[in-house]
């Protein structure tokens, strides 16, 4: 019965993934597949404004005193768009299909001293705006700072752009491309605190193009696929592959030679004298499969790590089939929330099954620990950062309704699937496969040199996988915490596979050396060594923040380090699980290959 349920779950997850793929692809093809007639109104939405160098710190467009239409109407948004900080509202510009407009006045506005100060502060911080026209993104800066030849910041001049020109390309009855540029001669001086009269203006020019509608999004993915970028990506891949192959090949050769000598030696010892004292990893055969301390926590970590690994695979599948095309607003966040909720059954099954294999009794407590091991720290981080965003009045602050929706997903999908998976795991009746018997009392571990301790071993284990991915990390960070577009998911997937292979191999190698030193407490060590790459990634966060980015301010800093801590923790659990599974396979294999009394 349990077997049938488990297979049903697998089929269910497959169906869900297919629905996500086809649903997202349908959104891609149909969301903006509009045909327009001449003079017909095309929707233009103003989204947000914010400092260019602080991607998380964004505000509503009309938080700045721009011209506002008579009735500001909010666009209904999906869950992922809200999580992405998008807050689309109707814009004051009228861009009717094929209707050119020469300089038209949006509104005449008298800015008060306070409004001038707000605009000046925004210009000083390099504020940009973002709009969407027929689901195509538009950017621009709201002003400029004149600091040429001025060493003293008090001498800087601040100007506000008052004229916005739209260049729109169409192919017959469809919008293909839109660009917005500001008139460098139409400026308003806002350097001083005084009332200023501004005529906000715009103009529109329509042009015909041969680009088909199906290819209109390719413009936004070309930046990450330019030849020099591709050369760097492929260089990083080749560099990683060569480094990994050389090091893993070197370690594999040594390991195989040593193991072969061990097997020959142990076979010879058995033939020569039965009473001869055993040494090395065979000496601890009665302790190597002794269950770890804190086995409930260990099983919960394995369950969470397995779920996160499954989540990563599903996300890569969606990326490779083209779901996450540029500016498919919120698609990634929606996929993360939905797939994480649907894969919670995997965490429950893995944790409960392994916990029962380790002869654990309180499986309900183990299930609660599994459910909160990753979600708990993520929830605490979210509560703190959402409070910061609310204090800043930023769009990153989630509305109450969205928080309720996420809670309902957790309560009605995540938790029930976790419990069902746990029940299936508990009833699986699987036994732990140990090729040797465990003795009643544990052997004493000999005194080992300092470099065989947990922290030095973790440092060694994390360095090699990190060295294989660090070049690609820059592009990922520049996309997540910047304005670059990342679309080369095939290369990213190759890097991910390399990361998994290297993590597994380095953990196996260190586990062997640990057992050869007659240290049988390898369970937690293999998990910590496998997951240590997550700590290296967090160390890279420090380097990126201070050396490669211009992020500043309490909100952006807290968002960067807060959410990156959660992401690195997820990598720690996921790679820790990979490391332990590889080590367990290796340990079972070598002890199965020798005769132990």
Task: Walk me through the topology.
Blueprint: H1 2-30, E1 44-51, E2 59-60, H2 79-83, E3 89-90, E4 101-111, H3 113-124, E5 127-133, E6 136-141, E7 143-146, E8 157-161, E9 163-171, E10 174-182, E11 187-189, E12 196-208, H4 218-221, H5 227-272, H6 295-320, H7 331-342, H8 344-357, H9 363-373, H10 375-392, H11 400-426, H12 454-480, H13 489-516, H14 523-548, H15 554-592
Parallel strand pairs: 9-12
Antiparallel strand pairs: 1-2, 1-3, 1-5, 4-12, 5-6, 7-8, 8-11, 9-10
In which range does the helix fraction lie?
40-55%
Q: What is the number of helical segments per DSSP (H or I, 4+ residues)?
A: 15
Model regions low in confidence, pLDDT < 50 over at least 5 residues = 1-31
Number of strand elements: 12
Shape: elongated
How would you describe what is shown here?
- It is a single chain.
- The protein is of the alpha+beta class and 597 residues long.
- It is 54% helix and 13% strand.
- The protein has helices at 2-30, 79-83, 113-124, 218-221, 227-272, 295-320, 331-342, 344-357, 363-373, 375-392, 400-426, 454-480, 489-516, 523-548, 554-592, and strands at 44-51, 59-60, 89-90, 101-111, 127-133, 136-141, 143-146, 157-161, 163-171, 174-182, 187-189, 196-208.
- Strand 5 and strand 6 form a beta hairpin.
- The protein is elongated, with a radius of gyration of 29 Å.
- The protein starts with a helix and ends in a 5-residue tail after the last helix.
- 34% of the residues are buried.
- Mean pLDDT is 86; it is low at 1-31.
């Amino acid at each position: 019965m349990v077997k049938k349920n488990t297979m049903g779950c697998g089929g269910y997850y497959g169906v869900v993934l297919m629905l996500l793929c086809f649903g997202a692809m349908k959104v891609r093809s149909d969301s903006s597949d509009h045909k327009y007639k001449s003079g017909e109104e095309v929707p233009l939405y103003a989204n947000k404004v914010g400092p260019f160098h602080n991607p998380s710190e964004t505000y509503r467009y009309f938080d700045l005193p721009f011209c506002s239409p008579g009735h500001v109407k909010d666009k209904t948004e999906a869950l992922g768009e809200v999580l992405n900080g998008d807050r689309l509202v109707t814009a004051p510009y009228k861009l009717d299909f094929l209707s050119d407009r020469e300089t038209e006045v949006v509104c005449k506005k008298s800015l008060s001293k306070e409004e001038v100060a707000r605009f000046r502060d925004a210009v000083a911080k390099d504020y940009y705006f973002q709009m969407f026209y027929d689901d195509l993104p538009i950017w621009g800066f709201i002003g400029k700072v004149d600091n040429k030849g001025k060493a003293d910041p008090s001498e800087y001049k601040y100007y506000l752009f008052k004229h916005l020109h739209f260049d729109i390309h169409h192919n017959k009855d469809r919008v293909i491309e839109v660009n917005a540029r500001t008139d460098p001669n139409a400026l308003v001086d806002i350097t001083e605190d005084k009332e200023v009269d501004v005529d906000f203006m715009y103009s529109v020019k329509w042009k015909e193009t041969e680009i088909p509608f199906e290819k209109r999004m390719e413009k936004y993915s070309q930046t990450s696929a330019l030849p020099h970028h591709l050369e760097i990506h492929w260089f990083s891949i080749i560099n990683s592959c060569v480094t990994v192959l050389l090091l893993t090949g070197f370690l594999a050769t040594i390991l195989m030679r040593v193991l072969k000598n061990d097997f020959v030696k142990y076979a010879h010892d058995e033939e020569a004298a039965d009473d001869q004292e055993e040494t090395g990893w065979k000496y601890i055969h009665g302790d190597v499969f002794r269950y770890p301390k804190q086995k409930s926590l260990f099983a919960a970590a394995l369950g969470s790590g397995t779920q996160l690994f499954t989540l990563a695979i599903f996300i890569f599948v969606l990326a490779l089939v083209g779901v996450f095309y540029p500016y498919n607003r919120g698609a990634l966040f929606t996929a993360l929330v939905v797939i994480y909720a649907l894969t919670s059954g995997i965490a429950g099954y893995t944790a409960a099954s392994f916990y029962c294999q380790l002869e654990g009794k309180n499986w309900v407590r183990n299930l609660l620990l599994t459910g909160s091991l990753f979600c708990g720290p993520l929830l605490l981080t979210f509560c703190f950062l959402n409070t910061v965003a609310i204090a800043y009045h930023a769009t990153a602050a989630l509305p109450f309704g969205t928080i309720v929706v996420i809670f309902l997903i957790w309560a009605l999908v995540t938790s029930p699937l976790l419990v069902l998976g746990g029940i299936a795991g508990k009833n699986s009746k699987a036994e732990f496969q140990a090729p040797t018997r465990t003795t009643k009392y544990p052997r004493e571990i000999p005194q080992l040199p300092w470099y065989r301790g947990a922290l030095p071993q973790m440092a060694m284990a994390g360095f090699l996988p990190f060295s294989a991915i660090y070049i690609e990390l820059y592009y990922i960070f520049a996309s997540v915490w910047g304005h670059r577009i990342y679309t080369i998911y095939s290369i990213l997937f190759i890097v991910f596979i390399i990361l998994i292979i290297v993590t597994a191999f380095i953990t196996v190698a260190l586990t062997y050396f640990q057992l050869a030193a007659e240290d049988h407490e390898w369970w937690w060590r293999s998990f910590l060594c496998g997951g240590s790459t997550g700590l290296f990634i967090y160390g890279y966060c420090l380097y990126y923040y201070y050396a490669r980015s211009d992020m500043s301010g309490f909100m952006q800093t807290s968002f960067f380090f807060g959410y990156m801590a959660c992401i690195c923790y997820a990598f720690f659990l996921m790679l820790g699980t990979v490391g332990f599974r590889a080590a367990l396979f290796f340990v079972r294999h070598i002890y199965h290959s020798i005769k132990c009394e």
